[in-house]
Fold this sequence. Notes:
This protein is an alpha/beta fold.
Amino acid sequence: MGALVVGADPLFTVISRIEEMPWVPGCHVNDHQMRLFMRLRQTHGIPAAAAKAGFSTATGYRIAGDPVLPSQRGTVRERRRPDPLAAMFDSEIVPLLKAAPGLRAVAVFEEMRRRYPDLDPGIRRTMERRIRAWRAVYGPEQEVIFRQLHEPGRLGLSDFTDMGDLGVLIAGQNLEHRLYHFRLIWSGFEHAHVILGGESYVALAEGLQNALWALGGAPAEHRSDSLSAAFRNLDAQARVDLTTRYDTLCQHYGMAPTRNNRGVAHENGGIESAHGHLKAAVRDALLLRGARDFDDLAAYRRFIDEIVAAKNRRNAARIDAERAALQPLPDRRTSDYEEIIVTVTSTSSFTLKKVFYTVPSRLIGHRLRVRLYDDRLDLFIGGTHLMTLPRGRPKGNGVHGHVADYRHVIHSLRRKPMALLKLVYRDQLFPRAAYARTFEQLVEALPERTACQIMVELLSLAHERACEAELAELLNAGIAANRLPDMAALRQRFAPDPASLPEITVQLVPLSAYDALLVGDAA
């Protein structure tokens, strides 16, 4: 709408500004707007005059029927409709709000619906607004969040976030895991590490040190949550030991260790909010990838590293600026494992944290030093490293887990094949699904002793001829054709081929040739 062109009346000098003012619902009409409307009514219709005056058409028709200035009205205009909460708000709703200050408005609404079945469902929003207004005047004081001024190089934050709801698969198996998440509060540098178990000191130490060495420096202060998950199921002495190890870890890097109060998430808000952004980025990347299945854990970890690296590239300038304010790293990393002494029993195994592990039988009776990491175990006898085992996890309801390797016990199992039938960890002993399915097929078709003997021979063949994967493919083909394994044919298939062995001719040097060496030495 264009501005009216009239004489020098000062009332109309502001029309062009009034026209651009938006109509704000809920605002009362003032005397100035009403005078302007009545003046415009002389040359314009009610809709146009109302729009130019800055209120609705309905208000314009009401004012046209009752042209009294708001300041001259004796009483405040009353409600147009009866108050649907008049009979219950002060008498029933307010006592509920006083008795339970944390009660949600929707719960109050449901309670009123229970007491008054005929209550109109459409008044829910009205009740919520009324309760909100009541609490603004009579409600309890709320906790205040104090925004902090952060300095570069001062504070780094650590926390864990559950990733189980993303449905990530490793070789077709669901991966229950968490992410250890580190973040510098000033520059936004992030680091994430895949954790297979729960929150623990080992996971924190490994993830934190990976982050610091990737960053190239350490902040002055490190803040984590209260480590309540890591403390769970620990006695008092173990809790003190865990606290001491965490303090020692921070001291090694020159960081002051701090923790936020238990149950107060906003104290770690600098990383809690970043959890949501990181999980959203991972979820989007999985959708763009078109598949949630990865060949192995290393491939999934590379996938996470690429996502975090892309986030850091966006903050590269601030990260480079903060690096200059970080403390230098020490000469080496400190321990990020838990060391435990175990004894290998006559079952060629040991049990650690409710998980059963097999080892070679030559270690029976020996005491081993185990370095327990989040995803693996390193075994030592004295100062000699023996092997690395994947770390297992106990099942729910107190059921122990099993990490078994058929290579460790196959030589004894060949002498006692019937032990396979009722073996506690039999399902974990089979290296691939094809072997377990073949054993089920053998038990259904043959006597138990014969089935166990053939199965043990299959495992022995896979071990001795190093053909575990190729043999599994042949077993799958036999299962599909409903055909039992032919051990004679398999032995011939995987036996060494004499024609493929090279002929090696060794020419012996005559002994007289060594005389030249003696002569040269005498000279």
